[in-house]
Write a structure and sequence with these properties.
Shape: globular
Number of domains: 1
CATH topology: Aminopeptidase
Structural class: alpha/beta
Number of strands: 8
Strand order of the largest sheet: 1-2-4-3-5-8-6-7
Number of helices: 13
Oligomer: single chain
Largest sheet: 8 strands, mixed
Protein name: DUF2817 domain-containing protein
InterPro entries: DUF2817
Strand content: 15-25%
Order of helices and strands: HHEEEHHEHHHHEEHEHEHHH
């Protein structure tokens, strides 16, 4: 890999064109850094027959009192961004030295949802949105009357959508506004397994595996930071730092002290809607000994209506497996382009902002352990 002169690999060298290539780059970066990889092999195979896995690397003292988790591909196809950031982090010798000097270990969790990454889907092999899957399945699932009203229009029987589907959506927006529409569609729903943003009826393989990883590697730290990479919301190339935690003023203040301009779904300042079953809840449940501070780093790609249209098309395609090859290929390319901007400028923006956010997280953790 070439270097951009700042200690990390050149941005273009960090990105891949497939899950298999992304995984190979991550494994090579870990090997070059002299780090062991703990691979949790997925039960399914990839699009090209390749092995799928949640790959885990600990960079630093496993018993460190401060731990920064960096994770990619919670939403499958969004993994091109997060994987590239992880490759850049592993290849940045100065950043790794900074972490070691500060007494902070870094836990890389590569491809939380390797199935979706490989197959260019946002969901897991169970057709579940992993970031809506973390809630108590012993209790009644959250209701979403708005999605219920929109379900047949969002993923209709035919594609492209018939005029009446768009009319239903437009009526809903006229009554509830654009923000109300976004909330209804993306908050998470638990009644339509053949729809979008489905939270599942049971814990997914990825959820269970992530819990096992945290129990093994994050059960001793006293300070736990987390950066989880996402794409698809906001202005193209801008990395929005979204508060990922409980609606607690003390925790929010700490997040803002670490990362500066942070938005929140709790006060409506984020481009994201308020969600059900969010992944960050696992930090509180599996790492109760630690004080948790986390963000989602969300990079904009295309305008939200285009991203949503691609998601709807991809779900329709899953529901109609006999679709002809040409139409299938066009829809799959559309979904990848909605979450991965394969352009040098966007890639450079992702790596620059990712490194900056990681440095901020390391500084915050270092200050936290000094203050204890």
């Amino acid at each position: 890999m070439t270097s951009d002169g700042a200690g990390s690999p050149a941005a273009e060298d960090c990105f891949a064109q497939s899950y298999a290539e992304a995984r190979a780059r991550f494994l090579a970066a870990a090997s070059a850094a002299g780090l062991a990889v703990d691979s949790h092999v997925h039960p399914e195979r990839g699009r090209d027959g390749e092995t799928l896995a949640m790959d885990v690397v600990v960079d630093g003292d496993p018993a460190a009192s401060a731990l920064l988790v960096v994770s990619s591909a919670c939403h499958g196809v969004e993994g091109f961004c997060g994987s590239a950031a992880q490759v850049a982090l592993l290849g940045d010798a100065r950043l790794r030295a900074l972490a070691r000097a500060a007494g902070v270990a870094v836990l890389h969790i590569h491809a939380l949802n390797s199935y979706g990454f490989s197959w260019w889907r946002r969901t897991t092999h169970e057709n579940v949105d992993l970031n809506r899957n973390f809630h108590s399945f012993g209790a009644q699932a959250p209701a979403n009357a708005g999605y219920d009203a929109l379900a047949d229009a969002l993923v209709p029987a035919s594609w492209p959508p018939p005029p009446e589907a768009q009319e239903t959506i437009e009526r809903f927006i006229a009554e509830h506004g654009e923000r109300g529409f976004q909330q209804a569609v993306s908050a998470g729903q638990y009644r339509h397994p053949d729809g979008i943003f489905f939270g599942g009826t049971a814990p997914t393989w990825s959820q269970q595996t992530l819990r096992a990883v945290l129990r093994r590697h994050a059960s001793r730290c006293r300070e736990l930071g987390w950066i989880d990479w996402h794409t698809g919301l906001g202005p193209k190339g801008k990395g929005e730092r979204i508060f990922a935690g409980r609606n607690d003023p003390e925790t929010l203040a700490r997040v803002q002290a670490w990362w500066g301009d942070v938005t929140s779904t709790h006060d409506g300042s984020s481009t994201s809607a308020m969600l059900n079953g969010e992944m960050w809840s696992v930090a509180y449940e599996e790492c109760p000994q630690a004080r948790y501070t986390g963000i989602a780093l969300e990079f904009g790609t295309l305008p939200i209506p285009e991203v949503l249209y691609a998601l709807r098309a991809d779900q329709w395609l899953l529901n109609h497996p006999q679709t002809d090859a040409g139409k299938r290929q066009a829809i799959k390319r559309q979904i990848r382009d909605a979450f991965y901007v394969d352009e040098p400028e966007w890639k450079a923006q992702v790596i620059e902002q990712s490194l900056d956010a990681t440095r901020a997280g390391l500084r915050g953790l270092a200050e936290a352990i000094r203050g204890r």
